[in-house]
From TrEMBL:
Pfam families: Ni_hydr_CYTB. The keyword Mitochondrion does not apply. InterPro entries: Cyt_b561_bac/Ni-Hgenase, Di-haem_cyt_TM, FDH_cytochrome_b556_subunit, Formate_DH_gsu. Residues 1-28 form the signal peptide. The chain crosses the membrane at residues 82-105, 125-146, 173-195, 226-249, 261-280. This is Formate dehydrogenase. The keyword Plastid does not apply. SUPFAM superfamilies: Transmembrane di-heme cytochromes. Its cofactor is heme. It is a multi-pass membrane protein. It is found in: Cell membrane. One of its GO terms (cellular component) is plasma membrane. GO terms for molecular function: electron transfer activity; formate dehydrogenase (NAD+) activity; formate dehydrogenase (quinone) activity; metal ion binding.
């Protein structure tokens, strides 16, 4: 009898042990604290995870909170604001100091009264389409990062909510013509933006901002730098932006977080670089805006800033027409 009771106890004990193991959460089964292969970081990640079970097919929705989410939120709310603030405010400070010390870069020989075609109507259309979209994308994007701490206290919750909604619509829909513009800019000007030896001399001599004007082709080294910033930076923000706009088609939540980090960092650096481009193209240099305004620039401006290009245009004109320089016209 005693042996029979002992057998019953053994069976009941084994059955209870099996029930206990089957009731143990999956996370506890996956991480064995006594196993020699378990790492401390793995244990901490499991402890910080809040996860449940769901009845819908997407089991990822059962993860309510995870360590990577906390790290991403820290980046978005703290680190990104520091990166963006330093980059953008730093660039504004550099531009202001340069303008106060150097002033506008004037045409040293004065205006000649003659102009030469620099950009066609199609080139200017693509530039201004891309530039307009970029300005709106920059403002609406910066609102996501800086709007709540800076704008919300000034205009209130209702106005900030309405503004943010329309800014989101603009950010999403204007991304398409912006991307098209970046592609067209790449195709239009790739031939003139390959770095060469002449660019090294241009950089060594400061691009004519401080001393004499070094010879340069149609696009000097500074403009080539802006070109590649637009092409590479625009391509990155477009690719990561569409991944965020159409979530989970390419990657999971970790990939989405990485895409947002890359998108935001490239975007704020892109904005900082474009501030310098806008400054040089407007109040920073006399005659520069006319290139994208009317499409024609003064001959003396072209001779000072793009002498190699001007010589090339004159040579082509003389070879193709009896007129010594049909590309150059008298300014009205």
């Amino acid at each position: 009898m005693a042996s029979f009771l002992g057998l019953i106890r053994l069976v009941v004990g084994a059955w209870a042990f099996l029930l206990l193991v089957s009731a143990t959460p999956a996370s506890a089964q996956q991480v064995n604290p006594t196993a020699s292969s378990v790492k401390e970081q793995q244990l901490l990640q499991e402890l910080n995870r809040i996860q449940g079970r769901v009845s819908i097919p997407d089991q990822r929705s059962g993860v309510l909170e995870q360590p990577q989410g906390r790290e991403w939120r820290e980046f978005r709310n703290v680190t990104l604001r520091w990166i963006g603030g330093v980059a953008i405010l730093g660039m504004i400070a550099v531009i202001l100091i340069f303008y106060l010390t150097r002033g506008m870069v004037r045409i040293e020989g004065g205006r000649s009264g003659r102009t030469i075609v620099r950009f066609s109507g199609f080139e200017r259309f693509v530039h201004w389409m891309t530039a307009t979209c970029f300005v709106i994308l920059a403002i609406s994007g910066l609102n996501i990062t800086f709007g709540r701490p800076l704008l919300l206290p000034l205009i209130g919750f209702e106005a900030f909510s309405e503004w943010s909604q329309w800014a989101k619509y603009a950010h999403n829909y204007l991304s398409f013509p912006f991307t098209l513009g970046v592609v067209l800019i790449f195709l239009m000007w790739i031939g003139g933006n390959i770095p060469g030896k002449v660019d090294i001399d241009w950089i060594k001599r400061g691009g004519g901002l401080f001393h004499d004007h070094p010879p340069a082709p149609r696009f000097n080294a500074g403009q080539k730098g802006i070109y590649w910033i637009v092409v590479v930076g625009g391509g990155l923000v477009a690719a990561t932006g569409y991944q965020l706009m159409f979530p989970f088609y390419v990657s999971g939540i970790e990939g989405m977080q990485l895409a947002q980090i890359l998108h935001s960092i490239v975007a704020v650096l892109f904005v900082a670089a474009m501030l310098a481009h806008i400054y040089i193209g407007t109040i920073g240099m006399e005659g520069a805006f006319e290139a994208m305004g009317s499409g024609e620039v003064d001959v003396n401006w072209a001779r000072e800033h793009h002498s190699l290009w001007l010589d090339e245009q004159n040579a082509r004109s003389r070879a193709g027409d009896a007129n010594p320089n049909p590309a150059v016209t008298a300014a009205e």
